[in-house]
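quick one
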Amino acid sequence: MTARSVQRLIPALAVSEGAGVTVHRTIGTPALKNLDPFLMLDHFSSDDPNDYLAGFPDHPHRGFVTVTYMLDGHLLHQDSMGNRGDLRAGGAQWMKAASGVIHSEMPQQSNGLMRGFQLWVNLPAAEKMREPGYQEFSPEAIPEIAGNGTQVRLLAGEYGGQTGPIADPHTRAQYLDVRLAAGIGFNRALDPAATAFAYVFEGSASVAGTALPRHSLAVLGEGDSVALTAGGEGTRFILVAGRPLNEPIVQYGPFVMNTRQEIEQAMRDYQEGRLVQSKASVVRA
Ligand code: FE2
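structure w/ fe (ii) ion:
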């Protein structure tokens, strides 16, 4: 086994999104434009309603998948497929925007903590203009595996003999939320063909001697495993892996295609009200 080390450490950048929601962004910043197959990682975390009340009113997406994981708080999702979904603490949502979706994500609280992640996962060229899809997973649908100072919530992939509910066949994505008590180590086999990263959102951790401070993303180098160790106050991080698509990426905001022409088409379609080509919600990856 070759343990992966930290290839790059990306501190989160505060970015204003939606109607003025402050998020901590790592993937999708000038320092890390994308991390094939991942296009963006936003961590939202605030107990100040001014940071999140404006929410994310109607906006479009085309060409990829959004995965939202709520840690605290309550968002209401509504989309052009006719889905209406409650995102509550511990739950997750997988939305394949593909040919086009317009949706909103609005806070259903006026105070308290709002915390979670949104990850954008790219789609291969052959999938970008297919029908959109939507799946929602309640907190209970996400397996929790605990033992030895370790607590894992399994969103995607396999761990401890269980399988996470989110399936992304094009990238074979794995997505774990890992909590470790002070000084505890966490070892995991990783697909050697996969891009992998860890993002620390509580406490601190280290990988092969490199410290990972809170709100930083560690891009992991080559290897078939990873070993993380919690710092003195314990830690909580997400560990995500997926196979790269190795296709050209042309992005303009919420549209991610393979060519400039396709992006121009997406912008025209949006301006002319043709972005949403299918209102059907297809529940498959
Ligand atoms: Fe969105």
